[in-house]
């Protein structure tokens, strides 16, 4: 059994709509009311949520955005690339992994409302990471990108967007 298959089984991971596998591991019992949150949120949110997230070679997480900051944590496996398009259209490619001496990061925060996607770095068999979101993640705050719409917003990233969008 491959290591990725063992992780799926051990942690009871499920397919994620953006690609890959996930399981929510934490949801704060404390909440922030809708009156205390910025207008972009509809309803209360937990203070924070966390998931395990797994990508295997050849898979990817489609471009999407959420209304909260998302902190990525590297756990095991091989490096993963996180592609972030900021609201001003600049592209940043972050490598999460364990080789900190060569610039890989253990953590990285994707700012709220940025479009982002991820995939295993070339030669990676699997990438096992975690994501912590605050205010806590709700699928109401999740938007998968449409390849044509996102490409029209950021035409200089059209090729990458086409590679990392499912529709």
Describe this structure in words.
The chain has 167 residues and is mainly β. It has three helices and 13 strands. It has a single domain (3-163), classed as Jelly Rolls. Strands 1-2-5-12-7-10 form a six-stranded antiparallel beta sheet, with helices on one face. The radius of gyration is 16 Å and the shape is globular. The N and C termini lie far apart (32 Å). The model has no long low-confidence stretch (mean pLDDT 95).
Features:
Jelly Rolls, five-stranded antiparallel β-sheet, 167 residues, mainly beta
Q: What is the gist of this entry?
A:
This protein has 167 residues and is mainly beta.
SSE order and pairing:
Elements: H1 3-10, E1 14-15, E2 21-27, E3 31-32, E4 45-46, E5 49-56, E6 61-66, E7 69-77, E8 80-85, E9 91-96, E10 107-110, E11 115-120, E12 126-134, E13 142-144, H2 147-153, H3 158-163
Antiparallel strand pairs: 1-2, 2-5, 3-4, 5-12, 6-11, 6-13, 7-10, 7-12, 8-9, 8-11
Average pLDDT: 95
Residues in β-strands, percent: 35-45%
Q: How does CATH name the architecture?
A: Sandwich
Element pattern in H and E: HEEEEEEEEEEEEEHH
Radius of gyration from the CA trace?
16 Å
Helix content: 10-25%
CATH class: Mainly Beta
Which structural class do you get from the secondary structure elements?
Answer: mainly beta
Helical stretch tally? 3
Alpha-carbon distance between the two ends: 32 Å
Contiguous low-pLDDT stretches (5 residues minimum) are: none
The name of the CATH superfamily reads Jelly Rolls
